Amino acid sequence: MRRESRRSKETEGGLDTRKMLYIAGTILALAVIAFVITFIVYGNTLNESSTELGKLNSSISNTYANDKAEETSTSYGKTVNEVKESDAKNNSSNTEKVAVNTSNAEKNKKNEPSSTKTAETKTKTTKSEEVVKTEKVPDPTFKMPVAGEIMKEFAGNKLVYSSTLDVWTAHNGIDIKADKTTVVKAAADGTVSSIKNDPRYGLTVIIEHVNGYKTIYANLLSTEFVVVGEKVTQGQSIGTVGNTATFEVSDESHLHFELLKENEQQDPELYLEQ
Q1: In the beta sheet, which residues pair with residue 194?
Q2: In the CATH hierarchy, which top-level class contains the domain 142-273?
Q3: What are the tens digits of pLDDT across the range 28-41?
Q4: Are 213 and 186 in contact (CB under 8 A)?
Q5: Cα dihedral sign, 154-157-160-166
Q6: Whether 175 contacts 254, CB under 8 Å
Q7: Domain ranges, ordered by start, for the chain
Q8: Which of 46-55, 195-204, 232-241 has the lowest mean pLDDT?
Q9: Residues in CB range of 86: below 8 A, 6 or more apart
């Protein structure tokens, strides 16, 4: 009984094992079949996708090629007549430009003489102005401011005796003997630059002339005939002889007269005309 019971259990265990193996084999077979089917289906899908991509690329290429062809046709696909017409228009435009340039050139040529004349006129005017500017003004001529004897000469670097001061001193002008109230006249044309009462020279008038010349009239009694800044002419009255110079008060009545060039003392007798 025990043996039969054991055999019965072994038989049942073998059956269970076979069932499990059968089920496992079935599942494995189904899995393999499913894998094969999936691989086949996926491969077909890939082929279809590749085909579609190829068609799409082909379509894009054809479209691009057609567009380029249309552009090329638009830009360069002209007929012989169109090319001739275009060339004719260009030639006409160039001819018009040449005509305009020729007209302008003729106008410029016509205007050239006028411009040249204007330039020549300006040049002549400039040269004339330069000549006037560079032309030296002649030195003034001087005449005796009063008629009379020269009682004391120009000393220059020498010293002369002053009876008033009782010393030997410089004498930068000449003393012309004349009675009091004798009218003193301008030695040359000029402008009155100063009228003053000098401590040594007394009442004095100074006149400036051209080219840096200047004359001084001192020891005057009056100067009522002129004012500072007045333009005077040669021989015009500027004052009267007096006795106001303190350093020559002991001398006879006279006009003290000096002449300078560029502020340097000159000998008046070398310039005075009688």
Answers
A1: 206
A2: mainly beta
A3: 888 888 887 887 76
A4: no
A5: positive
A6: yes
A7: 142-273
A8: 46-55
A9: 78
